[in-house]
Each structure stands twice: as structure tokens, then as C-alpha cells.
Amino acid sequence: MTTLADLxxxxxxxxxxxxxxxxxxxxxxxxxMPGALKTDATLVRGCSASVWVYPQxxxxxxxxxxxxxNAAITKGIIALVLAAVQDRPAxxxxxxxxxxxxxxxxxxxxxxxxxxxxxPNMIALIRxxxxxxxx
Length: 135
Hints:
The protein has 8 helices and 3 strands; from the N terminus they run ααββαβααααα.
């Protein structure tokens, strides 16, 4: 997965329309999430679009997340969030300030509040998962 810094380097030079396209393209890079995992238990509450996040813990203690959305731009936002935490140990995820890492993208100014309102809930679900597996 591309780093947030690499993504931001590209993002900052784009106009608003191209930023939307970049987010949509980024969402397409997410690993496919099987339909059977898209359940009420994996649904992120408070998002205007349907968003599912499914955690997997590997034997080495690293957390890997499958995620999907029924909205293309929201799927791109999920990909941004995952770029901050994907394939990292639970303890590392808990010490990661995901909102600070997303701040350079200034999503609240780029996207409508409906598109960004679920981001804190996505982050909270990921942090809660990491807390269950930490230490």
C-alpha cells in the first residue's frame, strides 16, 4: 500500500475534480472484501454511505483490515484511513494519530460534511479493534 506521504504529494497538486478522481481510484485499490463479511457486525455506524470494516489478526500480531463501501469516494476515504494503519501491530495502531496523519488532506474542506462525518467512526472502530489485540 502507498504511504500517506506519497499520496499527499500527489493530492496537493491536483484541483478539486482531480482530487475526487484520485480518491475514487484509491478506493479501487482496496483488497476485495467478500460479501459474506459485509454484515451488521462489520458495518461502521454514522456514515452516510454504507461502510464495512473487517479486521484480521495475523499470527505475527499484525492487523490487516478488509474494507468496502457502496460509495466510490467513501471507499477512497477508507483507503486513506487504512494507509495509516494497515498491516501494523495493534500497539503501533494505538499510538498512531490517524486524524493528524489525514489532516494534510484537509478532507473537510475538499468534501461535503456528509462524506466526512463517518471518518471518526471508522478510526474509532479500528482503534477499538487494536485495543482488543494490544499488549
